[in-house]
Amino acid sequence: MTEPKPPRRGQPPRQAPRRPVATPRPRASGQAGPSVTPALRLMQPRPRLRLVTVLLTVVLVVFSVRLFQVQVVDASAYAAKADLNRYQPVEVAAKRGDITDRFGVPLATSVDAYDITADPYLFAPQQARIGDAPQQAAKLLAPVIGGDEQTIAQQLATPKSRYVVLARRQLPQVWNRIKALKSTLADQAAKRGVPGLLNGVLSEPTSRRVYPNTELAAGVLGFVNGQQQGAGGLEAGLNAELAGKPGKMTYAQSGSQMIPSAGFQEQAAVPGTNVELTIDRDIQWAAQSAISQQVRQSHADRGYVVVQDARNGQILAMADAPSFDPNDISGADPAALGNAALQDAYEPGSVSKLMSMSAVLDQGVATPWTHVVVPGTLQRGDRVFHDDVDHGTWDLTLNGVLAKSSNIGTILATGQLGRTQSQADQVLYSYLKRFGIGEPTGLNFPGETPGILARPQNWSTSQQYTIPFGQGLSVNAVQATSIYSTIANGGVRIQPTLVKGTVGPDGQFTPAPAPKRTRVVSEKTAKTVAEMLESVVGDDQGTGTKAQIDGYRVAGKTGTANRVDPKTGRYHGYTASFMGFAPADQPRVTVSCVIQNPTVGSYFGGQICGPVFKQVMEFALKTLQVPPTGAPAPQIPVDFQPGKQ
Asked: Tens of pLDDT along 340-399?
């Protein structure tokens, strides 16, 4: 086989000759031969394009219809749903109204505070970059917020939680300390390229109720609960006025964060109303100091002092002992949380004789000079009555019966109120009711007792003779004080008041409604009784000499009653009391002192309550700048000589 010669220069390369393609012959019938594959023909492109176009058109039409429905037909509905999810409503707490004394000095107020919260997710090891972040953070926070370290650590380690409250209503100083600590730790952590340990500690603004004078007037003010709602005393009784009306703020948020540029809507909260009391803070302090000291010295269960303006019925002080600090209810004795001056019902004893003597004089059946022969004992029915001290026969005037606080003499005197004992009982009962016994004081104080006074037809044989000298009926201390203020006010009972008025959010002062006035005895009777009460204090034979005040005429009465033990319902111990007013001839201030179950020293009212009365009355007269009258006291005889007129 010869090699093909290379082409010459300038000539094109020679091409190999093509082999002729054989044209297949038609295969004869029944003749076998090689098969030939037919050529592949593609579909026409136009039908395929039309199909794609139709499908795209349908999809676009569906999208357009849906878009039209969303943006036009249902636009408002979807916008509302979006706003619902995007805008977050938050309640804005109303500032609770203040409670002040008669001069506007705050006794209870609200201050800014913070709830200390945390996001436990940020204390997880993968976030905090520290394995024991909850424990380390708790060790730092516990001394600041006053919590338990282990409890805080458990809260910060709460799985699947983004919100816990570590401490409620902390003062701004506490949150400032936490912020300073956070800043220091954040600077240190930034140098290491890790998050600050306390980055997950946050705060929420709130308010906190504060009682600046701690225990002062705590029984009157009461306290609030964890939701800052009144739970005792005036805080509860006036909660509707003090609480105000919360507002609402709505703001746009994303990822739990506020969007400042989206704006917000705010319905302002309406602050609570300020309540101005009739209480004088200085006199309240004097009353509370005096009764607290005497209760401690006497090892008594409790005691209370009420100071009232005799001219208008306003309560100037109402002090209980033992008391409590409303700033820290958790540490208070539950038995001391109330207001015993209004909530204790007790048998008043001899201080109640004032009403019996008023009835006798007002009915005209006796005068202060009427002779009353008082035996050492007195038999009535199956009971024998005695006086507090054993004695033979006393030849006393009616004035002397009151001065010496004779039970027997009082029984004999009130027996003259009717031709029969039943008639006498009915007359005495009518006077007791007019003095306010067995009726609410009108203060509308939560838990107040109206006392107990049965109808005369229900009096037992014993009560017919014990009620005239103060056993067999019960009162609260404000009711008892009001009895003496009635005599001091010329025989007109003025319903006691504790609220002087209110100051609304607009700063407008609204005075409280005028108290109800009731004529109980005549002005002449009231003046005579007041002079008789001076004998109790001023005469050497009286039982209230420890209540004398230099330069002032004092009218008052001692009381020493058998005490009903509230736990057993039986008589056990004594109730000691002293009540009176000054100046006796131009009365301005009424003071009452009651001590329950004194167990050390004397239990006589004149001995342990007389000095308390004197201490509080002297302070009140000086505080109110009440001058002595300078007029001499009347000299009404205490006894008489038999056979002489």
From this structure: 999 999 999 999 999 999 999 999 999 999 999 999 999 998 899 999 889 999 999 999
Do 186 and 126 contact (CB within 8 A), yes or no? no
Under 8 Å between Cβ of 587 and 566: no
DSSP 3-state of 128: helix
Which tokens belong to 3? 């090699």
pLDDT tens, position by position, 406-457: 999 999 999 999 999 999 999 999 999 999 999 999 999 999 999 999 999 9
Other residues' Cβ atoms within 10 Å of the Cβ of residue 421 = 17
Beta-carbon count within 10 A of 585 CB: 18
Q: Which helix (H) or strand (E) holds 83?
A: helix 75-86
Which has more confidence, 6 or 136? Answer: 136
CA distances, 364 to each of 375, 396, 467, 500, 524 (Å): 24, 18, 20, 38, 11
Neighbours of 634 (CB within 10 A): 17
CA separation for the pair 450, 233 (Å, rounded): 16
Instruction: Count CA within 13 A, CB hemisphere, residue 239.
Output: 15
Query: How many CA atoms are closer than 13 Å to the CA of 124, on its beta-carbon side?
Result: 11
Give ∠ CA 339-344-346 in degrees, rounded to 5. 155
Q: Is the peptide bond before 322 cis (omega within 30 degrees of 0)?
A: yes
And the tokens for 96? 């609770």
pLDDT score, position 30: 47
How far apart are alpha carbons 399 and 376 in whole angstroms? 18
CA-closest candidate to residue 371, choices 404, 405, 412, 428 = 412
Contact 241, 272 (CB under 8 A): yes
Residue bearing tokens 């000299």: 635
Calpha distance 547→636 (Å, rounded): 19
DSSP letter for each residue of 341-410: HHH--B--GGGGHHHHHHHHHHTTS--TT-EEEE-S-EEETTEEE--SS--S-EEEEHHHHHHTT-HHHH
- What per-residue confidence (pLDDT) applies to 309? 98
What domains does the chain contain, in order, with CATH numbers?
94-277 (3.90.1310.10), 281-324+340-498+510-623 (3.40.710.10)
**Residue type at position 486:** T
The neighbour count for residue 38, using CB atoms within 10 Å, is 5
Cβ atoms of residues 216 and 233 within 8 Å: no
d(CA 360, CA 364): 6
With contact defined as beta carbons under 8 Å apart, do 370 and 499 qualify? no
Indicate whether 307 pLDDT > 70.
yes
If we measure between CA atoms, which residue out of 534, 555, 553 comes closest to residue 626?
553
**What pLDDT, in 10s, does the model give residues 554-584?**
999 999 999 988 888 888 999 999 999 999 9
Q: What burial letters (b/e) apply to 261-277, b meaning 16+ CB within 10 Å? A: eeeeeeeebebbbbbbb
CA distance 269 to 247: 4
The dihedral built from the CA positions of residue 221, 223, 227 and 229, taken in this order, carries a sign that is negative
Half-sphere exposure of 222 (CA within 13 A, CB side): 21
Alpha carbons 30 and 51: distance in angstroms, whole number = 46
DSSP 212-238: TTTTTTHHHH-EE-TTS-EEEHHHHHT
Look up residue 306 and give its amino acid: V
83/93 Cα distance (integer angstroms): 23
